[in-house]
Amino acid sequence: MTDNLGYYKTFGLTPSASAAQIKRQYIELSKLYHPDHGGSERAMQRLNEAYQVLGRSEKRSRYDEQNRSRIQSHTAPKRPVASGDDSWAARAVARVQVEDAARAEAHKDIIIGLAWFVFGGFFVSIGYLSHTNNSVYLLFWAAIGYGLFSIVRGIHYFYNPQQLARRQLSPQQFDDLYHGIVSPFAWRGVIMGTAIVGLIVMLRLATLPASSLNANPTSPTPLANASLSAASAKDSAQMAALSAQYYSCEATLHQNDTAIGATETRMNTYLWGGKTDAYDSLVPVKQQQIASYNATNARCEALRSQYNDANDAYNATLRQAASPSQPTP
User: Fold this and answer.
1) Contact, 79 vs 117, CB < 8 A?
2) Are 120 and 241 in contact (CB under 8 A)?
3) Alpha-carbon distance 152 to 302, whole Å?
4) C-alpha span between 325 and 329 (Å, rounded)
5) Of 314, 324, 262, 266, which Cα lies nearest the Cα of 293?
6) pLDDT tens digits, residue range 206-229?
7) Residue 39 to residues 21, 31, 96, 112: CA-CA distances in angstroms?
8) Is 57 helix (H, G, I), strand (E, B) or coil?
9) Cβ within 8 Å of residue 191, ≥6 positions away
10) Closest CA to 174 of 193, 187, 161, 155
11) Across the chain, which distance is largest between two alpha carbons, in Å?
12) Which residues contact 306 (CB under 8 A, 6 or more apart)?
């Protein structure tokens, strides 16, 4: 071994990393440094060489044992001098962290888009069921359109985080991280986003009652009853509001989870570098982030329960409205 922790430094991890962490880091770095994507062939060879050892439990055990023997044979081992490979590994780890943050932002876009889509869809459905042609419903169609746009944009950036990183970083920062790496346009993300949005629209149309699309506007309907119509509108508005709050809560929960992961990465970096003071300073930060995650998760569960209750009330109102016992004018 040329140095006692060379393979772990290639992945930007510490010897305490789990097999799942090593595999995930290998997949992420392979995407960045595969020659077909404009990466370095030498860097890819080094990455494969490291994974051949650390990716297999028996080889990793022997490698760790050799590392321990080397450390024990030196009473005061010197810190390895930073090399070009170390610089490459540091840039790779920084890229992974930047792209993880970009994916988290894209995930937030998708969730917000779904919230707007559901919000607009509820009120547009009420317009169909009550056969009213109110110009106010154009606003709800606009909410649906904005929701679909956010969903497509989020899916695109989720599959191509480099595009979002280019917008968020300064040109110098982006060049430092991605110098010499091709950043192709993610057509896969656009195609998948369009397909998913199309599927959502088709499912939405399929769930509308046939009577709401083909009914004669001049004929009376069960929802012509004013009290039932008002109750249905109230329940639907409550469901839309709860749905928007729930998806916003889920977005916050995902952000909390991403923050915990980023803190753990920094703690591992400090631990490997021997910076125990910096490591200890992050322990209460991580504990606070975990407490915030648990509180947010409890709030999301409460919102989900409230939404289910409102949904039951809404369905009960619709069943009452569709009952043949309702008087007709």
Assistant:
1) no
2) no
3) 29
4) 13
5) 262
6) 555 444 444 444 444 444 455 556
7) 22, 9, 15, 34
8) helix
9) none
10) 161
11) 97
12) 242
For residue 77, the 8-state DSSP code is: P
- With b for 16 or more beta-carbon neighbours within 10 A and e for fewer, the 177-192 pattern comes to bbeeeeeeebeebbeb
- Contact of 70 with 4, CB cutoff 8 Å: yes
Vertex 151: Cα angle to 138 and 290 (nearest 5): 120
Separation of CA 207 from chain center: 28
SS3 state at 138: helix
Query: At a CB cut-off of 8 Å and minimum separation 6, what does 57 contact?
Result: 19
* Residue 266 pLDDT > 50: yes
pLDDT digits (tens, 9 = 90+) for 221-261: 444 455 556 666 677 777 778 888 888 888 888 888 888 88
- Write the single-letter amino acid at 190: V
- Show the tokens assigned to 1: 């071994």
Q: How far is Cα 26 from Cα 8, in angstroms, rounded to an integer? A: 11
Residue with tokens 């590994």: 89
Phi, psi dihedral angles at 240 (to 5 degrees): -65, -45
Q: Which residue has the tokens 């195609």?
A: 191
Q: How many CB atoms lie within 10 A of CB 15?
A: 16
Residue ranges of alpha helices (H) inside 160-225 are: 161-168, 171-178, 187-206, 210-214
Q: What end-to-end distance do the CA atoms of the chain give, in Å?
A: 90
Number of C-beta neighbours around residue 27 at 10 A: 10
pTM of the model: 0.34
- What is the C-alpha separation between 204 and 118, in angstroms, rounded? 10
E strand or H helix at 31, and its extent?
Answer: helix 19-33
Q: What pLDDT digit, counting tens, does each position of 79-117 carry?
A: 443 444 455 566 666 767 777 887 888 888 889 888 888
